[in-house]
Amino acid sequence: MLLPVARAYSLVSAQHSEPSVPAGLSVADVTFESTDGTPIRAWLALAKVGAPAIVLVHGFKTSRAEMVPWARFLHDAGYNALLLDLRGAGRSGGATIGLGATEPRDIVAAVQTAGEVFRTDHVAVLGISLGAGAAILAAALDPRIAAVVADSAWTDQDFQLARLGVIDVGPFRLPVPPLGVPAVNAMVGVDVTKARPLDAISRISPRPILLIHSADDDNATTPLDGARRLFAAAGEPKDLWVAPRGGHVGAINAFPDEYRARVLAFLRDALR
Questions:
Q1: Top-confidence residue, 53 or 24
Q2: Residue 225 burial by CB count (10 A; 0-12/13-18/19+): exposed, middle or buried?
Q3: Is the pLDDT of residue 63 over 80?
Q4: Hey, which residues does 161 pair with through a beta bridge?
Q5: What's the pLDDT at 163?
Q6: What is the DSSP string of 97-162?
Q7: Which of 7, 173, 188, 215 has the fewest CB atoms in 10 Å of its CB?
């Protein structure tokens, strides 16, 4: 009976760390509260007061340090950037991550903070992996988010949660008591099954969204088919770039020049 609960805890338990200050990028520390009061830590990379700002959202159990490559090219292009540690990650508060169900609260608060600190009404969100789906959910909730770039996004948490109901024993897959999902919900404090970017993405329109995915993304939670379904469900204006290779969140490394050119062209049109 304890096995599914233990597996649920392992899935959503916090992964705190101390992000290293990036070399070659001047940043300032900032702390603010998420919409539910959770303390959120972030870096501010100022290009110019009044210039558009991009909130950068990292992946599953990593930290704001993962987003430094994005911050560098955006800063070089004249954009302000806010790199946040989502709840349960980096130096932010929280005993659990929310599998995308609670992270939109952090993004909404980050958008407000970016607007106030950088003195701009033009704030977009760029997220990768877990952060990509959370960015879609946040934009569906908050009309202040002017545009979204979602790199390697997920559609829902069905696959992740279904794994809590079975255990592999050699060649056999055996069911376990159905306690995993209720345990996750109790630990996170919300029903994570309702965190479904696929159902929310249509509410972003008429604000623009750019979806990025690698054709060879082998992450079980973010198949290429999911990106195509998100694109089909999104309203206009929308765009989907499928990089020929790169793996999960790897298009920026496989095609750095094209990646940056596509993102900057999208932001230029979206934030003018």
A1: 53
A2: exposed
A3: yes
A4: none
A5: 86
A6: --TTSSHHHHHHHHHHHHHHHHT-S-EEEEEETHHHHHHHHHHHH-TTEEEEEEES--S-SHHHHH
A7: 173
- Work out the angle at residue 247's Cα, subtended by the Cα atoms of residues 200 and 255, and round it to the nearest 5 degrees: 100
Question: φ and ψ at 105, to 5 degrees?
Answer: -60, -40
Q: Which residue is associated with the tokens 């404090």?
A: 189
Question: Which among 53, 60, 106 is positioned nearest to 84, based on CA atoms?
Answer: 106
**Dihedral sign for Cα atoms in the order 54, 58, 64, 66:** negative
Give the pLDDT confidence score for residue 262 in this predicted structure.
98
User: Are the C-beta atoms of residues 198 and 232 closer than 8 Å to each other?
Assistant: no
In the chain, where the domains are located: 22-162+192-270
162 vs 156, higher pLDDT: 156
- 243: which 2 tokens? 């990089």
SS3 52: coil
Give the Cα separation of 120 and 115 in Å (integer).
Answer: 5
Range 245-263 average pLDDT: 98
Amino acid, res. 68: V
Query: Domain 22-162+192-270 is of which CATH architecture?
Result: 3-Layer(aba) Sandwich (3.40)
Token pair listed for 73:
């090219």
Global pTM reads 0.96
